[in-house]
Write a structure and sequence with these properties.
16% strand, alpha/beta, 7 helices, two-stranded antiparallel sheet, 7-stranded mixed β-sheet, single chain
């Protein structure tokens, strides 16, 4: 049997894609920006409107895109999160970034296949499941992310309180007490660890430091992908 095919919209450098691949999917990624490190088949295009005819990707009109999306077994979408981020709220410039969750949801609902929408805490997702790095023994990041799914999704146990995170900030009480090679680290923004430790902490070995800043750990979507595969199998039975 062939592996089911998942479309990875707003794919970035492929953190989500790798998790789905490990769970058992073949993956095609789409992003408006070039992604030279994306590890699977990649198409540079606007994720909100493209279609494939023969070997050419074009922008469709109306229902053509929804019909094409429906040819996939499942779809994952990670629309840009800046509009919903804590930083944008603090800076008061959230409206400088597009609010894409609602239009993305409408698009995926029209496709009629199982879907996942991923975003940061504060995004307007419907009944989302939160995943944290403490739920996965192989990870050394916290990185809370929300996942809205069109199928039932359960999360591992959330370990609280969170562990301390390595820091270079001398103002923090635990400065100098942790080893970045073994402790939890922060990989967003300017980061507080080496790129090698970012890769190890996230379970990603093919990205640059900047790409890791924008990524999610593959462990998250591997966990989701296994439940998605089960759901697809039950629906086909």
């Amino acid at each position: 049997m062939s592996r089911p095919l998942l479309l990875d919209l707003f794919c970035g450098a492929g953190g989500a894609a790798m998790g789905y691949h490990r769970a058992g999917f073949d993956v095609i990624g789409v992003d408006i920006e070039p992604q030279p490190n994306y590890p699977f088949e990649f198409v540079q295009a606007d994720a909100l409107g493209l279609i494939r005819r023969d070997r050419t990707w074009i922008t469709p009109i109306g229902r053509g895109y929804a019909r094409w999306l429906g040819m996939f077994d499942a779809i994952h979408a990670s629309p840009p999160c800046q509009h919903y981020s804590d930083l944008a709220k603090r800076n008061g410039n959230a409206d400088d970034w597009p609010d894409l969750v609602d239009p993305v949801r409408s698009m995926l609902e029209g496709a009629g296949v199982p879907y996942v929408i991923e975003n940061v805490e504060g995004a307007p997702l419907l009944d989302p499941t939160m995943l944290c790095g403490t739920m996965f023994p192989e990870l050394r990041v916290l990185r809370h992310r929300l996942f809205e799914t069109s199928f039932p999704l359960t999360a591992p146990s959330h370990k609280t309180p969170h562990p301390l995170v390595f820091t270079y900030d001398r103002r923090k009480r635990h400065f100098g007490q942790l080893d970045q090679d073994t402790s939890f680290v922060q990989v967003t923004g300017g980061g507080n660890c080496t790129v090698a430790n970012k890769r190890d902490a996230m379970g990603i070995d093919w990205m640059t430091g900047h790409e890791i800043n924008e990524s999610i750990p593959p462990a998250y979507t591997e966990h989701i992908g296994r439940q998605l595969l089960e759901y697809i199998g039950e629906a086909a039975a």
